[in-house]
Structure formats: C-alpha cells, structure tokens
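Board notes (copied after class):
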Amino acid sequence: MRIKYLFLGLFVWALIPESQSQECRLYFPDETGVVREMKTYNQRDRLQSVTRHEIIERVERGNDITLTVRASHLDDDMEEFYTVDLELVCEDGIFKFDMKNFLDPETMAGYEEMGIEVTADDMYYPAGMSVGDNLPDASIEMVIKSNGMTILTTTVSITDRKVEAMEEIETEAGVFNCYKISYNTGTKAGFINVSGSAVEWIADGVGVVRSETYNRRGRLSGYSVLTYLGK
C-alpha cells in the first residue's frame, strides 16, 4: 500500500479553549489559483515523483477558513498517475490536515469489493508555534475486511513532534523563513514494522518548503523540495 506524505505535515495544539475563537494562521497558500510544486528525490538525488497542489476554492466563515486543494501526483517521467481533491481546514486558530488524505486512491480502489474501515487523528499546526514546543501526535489506521473477517490492519503514526528552530531555507521557489519540525514515524502492516524519523521546514502562507526522511539507523532515505509557488 502506498501512503503519501504530502506535507509531511500540518499539525496541532490542544491548549486553546474551545469557546475562544482564534484568528486562523495558514501554513499553506490560500489564494485561489495558486499552485505549489514539490519534487521528491531519493538519497542519491534521483527524482522519484512530483506533487502539484492547486488551490481551487477558499471558503471563509468568520475566522475559520476551508481550502479545497487539487493534488496531482506525477512519476519520475512526469506522467500523472492520480489526482485527488483535499480539504484543509483552519478552525479556532488551528490549521489541520485530515490524515485520510494520505491514502492513495489507487490503492483504495484495489479494495473496493472489501470492507474498509479508516480512523485517524488529524495532523495540526497551531497559530502560535514557538521554538521548543512539543506538538501532538497524528495517526491513521486502515482495517481491510472480507466477509466480516479482518484481513489486514495498517497503521501509520507520527510521534514526538517538536519545533526545533527557525531557519531560512532557499529553493528554486524562493527564500523562506521556516519552522524546523522533527518527528518520528512508524508503519505497521500485519507483522511488518517500519520505523524512522523525519524533519520538515514549513513556512506561514507557503506550506512545507523542504522535508527529509531517515531510516531507523538515521540514514537519509529521501527528501522533498518546493520547486514552484505561484500562478
């Protein structure tokens, strides 16, 4: 099963009172028509895939904002293999991303005739992140069933998230002042367990500018870079 880490990231705080309405701070572009492009490379700097995000709708209700984003995924030959619309929501000053958006529609289509149960704890960014902050975990679990019996359970977890620093990152798309966030990753599918870690740099109004993934031994597995931002 392919599970896409698109932003590797968009996460939360739980300390904001529910009754207090907070102004949203978006860690993603919010102007209709804006396009983001991220290129993903392996540890040998070979292009693996390209992801393009286009803002196709912006809805504002009071201080809350909902974005509809069209995500197109291309292989290393720049051929599109699937497109899906995502929903990004900012409520009470918390920008959140539904972990279900990580599921590859192509993979899900392969289980259409089976029963699938998906549960998730969304990923979030708070409006007032500071260096040293610990951010809540995120996870998603998919249970595949046939005739009422569980065939496979797959769980992806993102844990120990911490705002490490503020750093300036330069890419083809420009120069951005970013939050550097580290976290651990874990995937469990049946008896198979894979663990690792990641670091991402994310900018207000831009989204993830760079992300790096590492295996359990701490060796670089691959990285993604923002290569275009505009109309």
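Comment from the instructor: The chain is about 0% helix and 60% strand. The chain has a mean pLDDT of 84.
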